[in-house]
């Protein structure tokens, strides 16, 4: 059985996509898992981190991205989406992590999302608007051990498509007021959506990103997040024990290059160890 989870935060710049890619590469390179990354974020950062900008442009120009899937749903006469040509195999720039496949994103998802919101439900025929992705990929999901969905920083129809197929979700955040402010709203909206579709979608936890051990703000906020969970577990997920440190290596890892090992890409110190430990924590939460 494939374990599927989403990464989401309404705030940008919190390390959401970095977390997605690092988890995928750790699952593949360290644990030997077969991983599918589904990039639903129109910023396309996960896509370009995994295949590089040049390859992404080729796919985008040919219509081989997830944007075409949703465009087809908006036009029942269109059958342009080709799953086989869109699915990119063995995508990581880390030689040791070659069991990762990718369904790439596109900037066009911005316009598509607006159309999905404004289109009457009947336009989709028998397909509910949040079922578009699941119906397209359900036949290949079980080929993977883990599927990670990188969601856009909103709770719209595209994000719902990712959540629809997820057992749970993680919320990467910087431990400060601005980055954590929207967490209860995320949890509440996802819970309401889960009730609407009668499928459980568990808040797996909050991932502390860009952590600075010498920052009182960060230390106090982590303490507050844990207290919030103890007081209101319905609205505040637990905090993962692993903290991803602020590190210059993260910026370098964002560039698509050739790396032999995970340690070469993510560094041999605390950053690599943190992603390794976080991966194991998430697998435990998923029951994997």
Commentary on this structure:
There is one protein chain. Strands 3-2-4-1-5-6-7 form a 7-stranded parallel sheet, with helices on both faces. It has a single domain (3-286), classed as P-loop containing nucleotide triphosphate hydrolases (Rossmann fold). It is globular. The chain has 288 residues and is of the alpha/beta class. The protein is built from 14 helices and 7 strands.
Briefly say what this structure is.
This protein has 14 helices and seven strands.
Top keywords for this entry?
288 residues, alpha/beta, Rossmann fold, 7-stranded parallel β-sheet, 14 helices, 7 strands, 15% strand
CA radius of gyration is 18 Å
How many domains? 1
Number of strands: 7
- Low-pLDDT runs of 5+ residues are none
Mean pLDDT score, rounded? Answer: 92
The end-to-end distance, rounded to whole angstroms, is 9 Å
Shape: globular
Name of the top-level CATH class: Alpha Beta
CATH topology-level name:
Rossmann fold
- Helix tally equals 14
Classified in CATH, the superfamily is P-loop containing nucleotide triphosphate hydrolases
Biggest pleated-sheet summary: 7 strands, parallel
Assembly level:
single chain
Order of helices and strands: EHEHHHHEHHEHEHHEHEHHH
């Amino acid at each position: 059985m494939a374990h599927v989870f989403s990464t989401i935060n309404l705030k940008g710049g919190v390390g959401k996509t970095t977390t997605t890619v690092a988890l995928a590469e750790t699952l593949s390179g360290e644990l030997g898992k077969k991983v599918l990354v589904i990039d639903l974020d129109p910023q396309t950062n996960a896509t370009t981190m995994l295949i590089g900008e040049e390859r992404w442009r080729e796919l985008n120009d040919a219509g081989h991205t997830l944007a075409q899937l949703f465009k087809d749903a908006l036009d029942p006469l269109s059958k342009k989406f080709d799953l086989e040509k869109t699915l990119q195999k063995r995508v990581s720039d880390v030689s040791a992590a070659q069991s990762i496949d990718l369904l790439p994103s596109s900037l066009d998802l911005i316009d598509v999302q607006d159309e999905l919101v404004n289109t009457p439900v009947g336009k989709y025929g028998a397909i509910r608007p949040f079922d578009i992705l699941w119906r397209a990929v359900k036949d290949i999901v079980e080929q993977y051990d883990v599927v990670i969905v990188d969601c856009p920083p909103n709770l719209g129809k595209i994000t719902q498509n990712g959540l629809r197929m997820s057992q749970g979700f993680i919320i990467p955040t910087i431990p400060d007021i601005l980055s954590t402010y929207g967490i209860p709203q995320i949890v509440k909206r996802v819970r309401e959506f889960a009730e609407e579709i009668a499928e459980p979608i568990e808040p797996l936890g909050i991932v502390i990103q860009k952590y600075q051990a010498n920052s009182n703000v960060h230390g106090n906020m982590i303490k507050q997040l844990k207290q919030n969970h103890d007081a209101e577990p319905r609205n505040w997920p637990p905090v993962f024990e692993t903290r991803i440190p602020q590190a210059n290596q993260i910026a370098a890892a964002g560039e698509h290059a050739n790396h032999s090992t995970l340690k070469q890409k993510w560094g041999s110190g605390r950053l690599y160890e943190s992603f390794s430990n976080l991966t194991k924590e998430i697998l435990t939460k998923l029951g994997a």
